[in-house]
Amino acid sequence: MILFDAHTHIDMAQFQKDLESVVQRAHDVGLLGMVSSSMGPGSFRRTLGIMRKHNGFIYHSAGCSVSQLTEQDATRIINLAQKHTKEIVAIGEVGLDYYWIKDARGREAQEPLFSHFIELAKEMNLPIVIHSRKAEERATEMLERQFSGDVLMHCFDGSPQVARRIADDGWNMTLPANFDRYQNRIAAAKIIPLEQILLETDGPYLSPTPDRNEPANVQYGCEALSGILGISVDDVAMATTNNAKRFYHL
Ligand SMILES: [Zn+2]
């Protein structure tokens, strides 16, 4: 079985003590690789170091912590991405967060920052990975207007209506390892064609087990998707891995 974790945060403190065994377990369950999304300027540098050490297995996507992003950090991330063009495979996660940010003014303030990152992806000719927690519809609207490159809706949790729109737009989505606990995600798994689905862990978050989540757990999402679609685990693994390679141009 060949798997791929299309979105994780391997530079986080939760992995600091035993990173090498985390990477080893990922190899052991058959991962071909993983994309680690950085969450800010410090995280960008850490991820760069880890990526260089695990060259060809860990890839770097330059993103931010959407709900905590400041103008200053956005500028720093953009500068770093431009400086390290050859060492990143995507821009993201970037986007909109309506889960943590509840007031209208705060929500609106995220849009120009999101637009800066959309422009950056265009300029660098890179695919974009979208965080759209509780803001799936607005993020989709902005992207439809401003972006014509490849889009990955990470941990998509939108309504079936938005899922249909994403399917029609030809965009991709990732399902996390515990996705079968969420009705919207189960519905999206049936609406969006398998050719547009990637698997992720979002480790250390969204664990399917009582422990910290880690890339090896991508196998649980693969099993769940296999059950829902009635397709063998091997076929789901192969399809989602190929989708990740295609999306990130690996
Ligand atoms: Zn994430």
Shape: globular
Discrete helix count: 9
Which residues sit in consecutive blocks of at least 5 with pLDDT less than 50? none
Strand content: 15-25%
CATH class call: Alpha Beta
Total domain count: 1
What proportion of the residues is helical, as a percent range?
A: 40-55%
Mean pLDDT: 97
The count of DSSP E runs of length 2 or more, i.e. the number of strands, is 8
**Helix/strand class:** alpha/beta
Bound molecules: zinc ion
The CATH architecture is Alpha-Beta Barrel
- Rg (C-alpha, Å): 17 Å
Question: Any idea what the CATH superfamily is called?
Answer: Metal-dependent hydrolases
CATH topology: TIM Barrel
Order of helices and strands: EHEHEHEHEHEHEHEHH
Q: What is the terminal separation in angstroms?
A: 18 Å
Q: Report the sheet with the most strands, covering strand number, pairing sense and barrel closure.
A: 8 strands, parallel
Strand order of the largest sheet: 1-2-3-4-5-6-7-8
